[in-house]
């Protein structure tokens, strides 16, 4: 009997994969690799703590609000602390912008060549009810000279400047999905071994799909073009799927084919999602997987940032579906 029928081969682990693909990265340095490993390590700690949240009084509201007035969950704050610590300790990152912090977080490691924009915990209001949540991150090279104190210029770069981006989904299994601009690869966490293993090599998204995802509770104040597109989806008997965790909705659509929409609405003339640490990273991933991301007017990654926490409408997913939406708009 063939060996592989007795013992299924295990994919490359994340550390080894990152190392062996270092040469694809245009700056060919081990620092980005180390940074990705730091992200992965912090995500394992968060995964562990999240799994026990209900048992160790970590579920629920923290009683505070972040810069944008969102109510913070205890786990939002915990995830933020875990990533800030891991990335500071690593030394590759000089500054971080996070959903949970009003201003730039300076790590004090001014020799670090990278800056990060991140949503430490996305969909956190879903944790208490056992629904998938995630982490979203974008990595940039700093613009200012290495060794100096980083400035806002380093943290406010267009999405096209990302050198790597990805997300972690804490779901029925935990996955780490990332791109450095040479396609997308997905890794699944094996809890018993404490490692991420390559499970979704060279991930591509279907060109077209059947799923549309949006919060239709806001649909009375959507732009007419979006309403027309949603009617088209219904006329074509497509499937509506909306979890309310961006990472989870995005991940499902990436694998199955679909479109995610967060349009402008009455309470949010620019939608709800944040350009710097939600939209850009997923736009980079989707484009690398063959899909498309727009705010309805331009490619997400070409939007010029003006504020760490700025919002923008987001239409993201299978290319043909986003094309059809754009025709309606
Ligand atoms: P966060 O938990 O980081 O604040 O993000 C919540 C976001 C996103 O995950 C999700 O897609 C969206 O909010 C859901 O918004 P609605 O509840 O308005 O549908
Ligand atoms: Mn979020
Ligand atoms: Mn968040």
CATH class category name of the largest domain = Alpha Beta
- Tell me which CATH architecture of the largest domain applies here: 2-Layer Sandwich
Which percent range describes the beta-strand content?
Answer: 15-25%
The CATH topology label of the largest domain is Fructose-1,6-Bisphosphatase, Chain A, domain 1
Write out the CATH superfamily name of the largest domain.
Answer: Fructose-1,6-Bisphosphatase, subunit A, domain 1
Order of helices and strands: HHHEEHEEEEHEEEEEHEHEHEEH
Strand order of the largest sheet: 4-3-5-6-7-8-9-10
Low-confidence stretches: none
Secondary structure tally, helices: 9
Question: Outline, from the CA principal axes?
Answer: globular
- Summed up, the domain count is 2
Query: Which class of secondary structure composition applies to the elements?
Result: alpha+beta
**Mean model confidence by pLDDT:** 93
Q: What's the story with the biggest beta sheet? A: 8 strands, mixed
The unique ligands bound to this protein are: 2,5-anhydro-1,6-di-O-phosphono-D-glucitol, manganese (II) ion
Query: What is the terminal-to-terminal distance?
Result: 58 Å
Number of strands: 15
Radius of gyration: 19 Å
**Assembly category:** single chain
Percentage of residues assigned to helices? 25-40%
């Amino acid at each position: 009997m063939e060996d592989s029928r007795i013992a299924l081969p295990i994919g490359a682990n994340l550390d080894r994969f990152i190392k062996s693909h270092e040469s694809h990265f245009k700056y060919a340095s081990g620092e980005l690799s180390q940074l990705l490993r730091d992200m992965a390590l912090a995500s394992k700690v968060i995964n562990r703590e999240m799994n026990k949240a209900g048992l160790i009084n970590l579920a629920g509201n923290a009683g505070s609000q972040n810069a944008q007035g969102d109510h913070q969950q205890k786990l939002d704050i915990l995830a933020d602390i875990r990533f800030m610590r891991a990335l500071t300790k690593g030394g590759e990152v000089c500054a971080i912008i996070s959903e949970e912090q009003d201003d730039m977080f300076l790590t004090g490691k001014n020799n670090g060549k990278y800056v990060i924009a991140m949503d430490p915990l996305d969909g956190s209001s879903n944790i208490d009810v056992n629904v998938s949540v995630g982490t979203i991150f974008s990595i940039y090279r700093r613009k200012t000279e290495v060794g100096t104190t980083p400035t806002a210029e380093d943290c406010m770069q267009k999405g096209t400047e990302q050198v790597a981006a990805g997300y972690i989904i804490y779901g029925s299994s935990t996955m780490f999905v990332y791109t450095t601009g040479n396609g997308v690869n997905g890794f699944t966490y094996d809890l018993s071994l404490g490692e991420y293993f390559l499970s979704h090599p060279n991930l591509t998204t279907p060109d077209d799909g059947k799923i549309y995802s949006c919060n239709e509770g806001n649909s009375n104040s959507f732009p007419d073009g979006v309403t027309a597109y949603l009617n088209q989806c219904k006329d074509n008997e497509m499937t509506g799927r909306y979890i309310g965790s961006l990472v989870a909705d995005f991940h499902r659509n990436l694998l199955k084919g679909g479109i995610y929409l967060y349009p402008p609405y009455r309470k949010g003339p620019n939608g709800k999602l944040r350009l710097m640490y939600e939209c850009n990273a997923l736009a980079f991933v989707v484009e690398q997987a063959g899909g498309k991301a727009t705010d309805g007017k331009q490619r997400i990654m070409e939007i010029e940032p003006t504020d760490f926490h700025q919002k923008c409408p987001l239409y993201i997913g299978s290319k043909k579906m986003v094309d059809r939406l754009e025709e309606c708009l």
